[in-house]
Structures are given as C-alpha cells and as structure tokens.
C-alpha cells in the first residue's frame, strides 16, 4: 500500500512539473505570436495606399482629394510625386499627377515632422541655456510677495518658460521692456511691472526652484520672488520705436490717461515717462507728452504725411495743433493677454487647419489674445507649451479650447470636426518656413549647409504635394469652412481677425482687437540673420510648385471661395 501511494505521489509531482512547463511554453509562444502580428500591422500601416491610387479629377467643383483614412497618430501627408518629374502637357493642371508614392517617402515625411518637434527646443533655447551659466541674476532682491493672478500688481508683460526659466532670463525680459521690477512665480512664470506688490509674504513661502536653474528660487504657489531693475543690463536703443505721424484726437485728455508738459521735450523723455506709467504708446504734440493705448478714438490705422508733423521726430517743436508724433514704448499692451480654458465644453468642435509652415502658431496667438481662450492642438509641442500655449497639454478632444490646431488631411480626421478655419499660405513661403522650423525651431533660420544638403530637394519633392492635397481634401470633406489666406490676414489684420472671431461665435470689443494688433507679432517672430536675395528654389522645383498652385486655385473657385492671392501666381 505504501509503495502504491509513493508511486502516485511521484506521478503527481511529475505531472505538476509538466503542467508548469507546458503553461510557460504556451505563454512564450503566445507572446512571440503577438509580437510578430504587431510588427506586421505596423509595417502594413506604414505602407499607406498603393502607389497606383490617384486623386480624382477636379471636374466636380473643386471636390478633389484622396479618400484614404489617415492614422490618428501622425500628420503624414497623403500624396506625393515622383522625384520632380515633368508631367505630360495634357495632365499639367490636373491632380492626377498628385499620386501616392512608395512607403519609404511616406515614412520619410513622418520622420521629418516628428523628429524635429522633439529636437527644436534645445536649438532655439541655446541662447537661454548659455545665459544660465554665464549670467548670474543681478539687481536687488526685494523679497517674497503675495501673488493673485486675477488682481496682479505686476501688471506688465507676462512670460512663461515651463522648462528653462531662470532669474536672469526674467530680469532681462523685463528690462528689455523698461519695467522696474521682475517677479517670478511657480518656478516658471515671469511677471513685470513698475510697482511692488502690496502684500509681503514670509521668505520661506517662496520655495519653488527655478525650472532652468537649480538652487535658485522662483517664487512659489501664489507667491512672487521680486527683483528690482537697478543693476541689471538694459539694452541700448530700446526706448523708442517710431510709429508715425497721426491726426490728434479732439480731446487728448479724455483719450490718454497720463500726460506731461515739459520744455525741450524729446521722444526719449516721453517714452521713458510712459514706460514708467506702463503704457505702450507715447504721443508728442508740441511740449505735451501723452500716454495711452490704441483705442477707437485713436486707432493708428490711418497715418498722415510726415511733413504735417514738421519733419522732426525729436524736437519739441515737432507736431502741434491737429497732428502728433506717436512712438511705441517697450511696454507690452496687457489688455488682451489674459487667457483661460472654456468654462463649459464647446458644442461646436472647430479645427484650425493648415499645412505646416503656414502660420498656424501665429494664428493661434491672434485667436487666443482676441478671444481670451486657449487653443488646443492635435499634437503636443513642448516648445510651444513652454512658451505659454497651455492648450498644448490639454487633450485635443476635451472641447475646453476655442479651436484645435491640426495639419491632418485624411477623410476620417476631417470629418471629426464640425467646422474649420482653413489657413492657406503661399507654398513657397510655407516650404521655407517649415524647413527653417525643422532645422532651427520656431524662431530660427536654417543654415547654408542645410539648404545645400540633399534633404532640401527631397523635402520640396515630398512636401509640395502635401501642400496641395491638404487644401483639396479639406475642401472636399470639410463640413463648414472659413478660408483665410495668411497674406491677407497679415495685411488686413483687424477685418480678417473679426471674421475668424465671429466664425468661432465669440464677441470681442474693438479695444481688445486693437490690443491684439498692437501685439501682433507676439513672441514668435524669427530672430537672427536672414539671408538677403536668397533663392532656394530651382527652376525644376518652381515648375512643380506652380502646377500645384493652379490646381488649388481652380479648386477654391470651384467651391465658390475666392481664388489664391495674386502673389501666389506662378513665378
């Protein structure tokens, strides 16, 4: 009996080991099969549509486009062309030659778009990084103060750098705009002003470390670390920017909140006085200096002949009577800088759609400051988030933003939106802007070496077709569109911005729009040396791009939109 029991026990032990081995083998085999299938799906997804698929013709009133759904994970273009080849004459203005190419070119586009989104921030912040190590903060530390974001004492310019903020960076930013005090909060926010906050706080309450400088204190939660301007550097020649000669309003006292009368008045003296009062405009009429904002009474839209202002920009005798000289002070117009998320979810899901390099970031700056609401993004760009576009981190389908940036142009992605602002820019300018962003971030310029590399012709070959297909597909699948041309927005800012704001169903005041116009460039104007008389496009490239221009122009007119601006006309 004992022998039989021993055999049974031995058998069960062997069975237990065998079951364990079989289970482990089963799990390993399943994992390998899952990995193999995942790899296959990824490879198939990257191939896109067969190269034989072409866009349908434009005969039906601009309804050109490819019905190929696009992955929600990447902004790859849908169509391409075979390496700068000349199409047949009978197909010259037809989108039939906007064909999909091979999978390598598609993957190249996707790598280009995503690779430099992550790389651009270190490039464009190199100057800030150098400043961190070479410039210690100067000036006098005034102490820790209470900070109420709704009723700020430092009411001047506001800057964000949620990754690389330093005390020196904030001080320099405030000094460039002639503010006396620089205050830092939450480790990443910079506030400027000419009056100290009233409520002091205990020094230990300013305990947030600066995001870009270990060991330095940048305020705290509801607290400001404040520095005075007395010792740190103020750039030379920053005081006066001449805006022109304008007809003076009927009642200067009612129009301008602050004024000064002084013998031998100069533009520098008036600008300094208005800067201390935190006004963006300095207005001189005779011996009078007036400070204020652009308003309906004094909009600065219609300038006068400079001879009416006596032809002198600095003498106290300049202007007088019906005309005055106007200067821009370094102070930021803060009437339109407050922004927030929507308090309730938007019922209409609106896209701000454009080809990369068409001015989408600038349009977002204008919309945010005009409406007072953040814009969202289909993607996440850390560089933009760090500069104050807080909607970048909000999920793009949250409906808490006034509109959502996208470069997508697939049928599925387009039909997710109820309406869209379609921003179009001259393809020559768009391609150059996107290539600059690729190699130098949002604010820099690509180098000669970049332009002379093999990637530039490859880039044009791939992206030029995307510029065309992006417009064509939004015209075909977009439910409700407002077409805005970048060049017209730049030239007639207030009228075009009014159209955009009305399309978004937001009511804004005229003074707020004038504030936006006064801050039109924002912090996203490219810096550095721009090459003069630089022509990166070969004749072969121009021939290719010009055909896309004619195709898009015809499609727009077919949908009863105005055609492309004259400057788009083939070179």
UniProtKB/TrEMBL annotation:
Keywords for the protein's UniProt record, in alphabetical order: Repeat
Domain WSC: 138-230, 239-336
GO molecular function, one term: sulfotransferase activity
Pfam family name, one: WSC
InterPro entries, A to Z: P-loop_NTPase (IPR027417), Sialate-O-sulfotransferase (IPR051589), Sulfotransferase_dom (IPR000863), WSC_carb-bd (IPR002889)
Entry keyword Repeat: yes
PROSITE patterns documented for this protein: WSC
Entry annotated with the keyword Nucleotidyltransferase: no
Family designation: Belongs to the WSCD family.
PANTHER family: SIALATE:O-SULFOTRANSFERASE 1, WSCD FAMILY MEMBER CG9164
Protein name: WSCD1 protein
